[in-house]
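User: Please go through the entry that follows and flag anything odd:
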Amino acid sequence: MSDRDFTVIGQSVIRKEALSKVLGEAKFAADYKFDGMLYGGVFRSTVPHAAIKRFDASKALALPGVACVLTAKDIPGKNKTGIIIKDEPCLVDDKVRRVGDAIALVAADTPERVHEALDLMEIEYDLLEPIFTIERALEEDSPKIHGTTNIHAKKHLECGDVDAAFAKCDVIVENTYSTQMLSHMFIEPDAGVATYKDKIITVYASTQNPHYDRSDVAGVLGLPSNRVRIVQVTTGGGFGGKLDISVQCHIALLAYHIGKPVKMVRSRTESTIVSAKRHPMTMRAKTGATKDGKIQAVEVFMTGDTGAYASYGPAVITRAVVHCMGPYEVPNVRVDAVFVYTNNPMSGAMRGFGVPQAAYCHEGQMNAIAKELKMDPIELRLLNAHRIGTTIATGQVLTDSVGFKETLLAAAAKAKEVM
């Protein structure tokens, strides 16, 4: 980097929205109001895997103040949404795949009336065996959640001669690591308001993905994209969890049918049940090194639970595989990964997209190697650290901005200072 002055890099910059938030003037999705606005709610499944035998909303429709109840048959466009793979129905049309699947929508004059209407809806299921583990999902006789297989995605990465490298290693460590499902728990639950005026649908939403939202809303309504407008309002946290579609299609569908603005604000419980989670993963790792501490080979087999729908699964599995070696030079690598569908909550993007799970694995392995060789864990890491000129397992050559060694040394110095 040159000695020139930068206006942002290396400077203390005041956040543009800081003052409006501190003064309470910032408008979040739930703060929006329009004349004649109604409130929306979602009737959701309480079972993880089932066909719908009977659904009856007649009592809800008879309730004063209820404007409409919509089901899959009221969708004018495509009943499929999803960021990468369109595998999640806006409203269930074939079968329930998780607790919390959206079955019907209701609009009414007050939030209280919405809850009354939801309580009056009746449903009967033909229950199917739920799949809750990766192991059961992969068995040949397991019920299939989508199509003819429960395998959502597979990835393979290999470079060098892994078997020959392990044969020359002085020490080999093998361990299994597992990470759990985590919820983002953003401060602001999912919320939004939709209007339909002059043949234009406008959605004001708490979102991280307005351009993707527009595609899904347009698809569900069967409208061209130039008749759908998505406004990302002040968003109270996302961390990847608001990349997926949430209330956008539902409120747009209600506003489209009623012709009035419709607001929807998920409760904390509903948001936690329905929003995407961090992928739980299991990683079997084998790492080999020579007695001087140089890592020679890494082999990993990982499995991940993407839940009922794909969400960001294709990106998560790719990043997890690519980052299995961490910031370390490893000349011989073999990684295989399998992600499966289950009837668990949907897994998606969360701060790092699979890399934190991989880090838990590769850092555990580095500590294990250091222990076997009786080396200082930091010295082992410095010995194997990425540098300018490193070629990683994908074939990419790191040509600049490789600051791992400097960062690790600074962190080690600070650790000694505060110990």
About this structure: The first helix runs from residue 18 to 22. The CA atoms of residues 132 and 340 lie 11 Å apart.
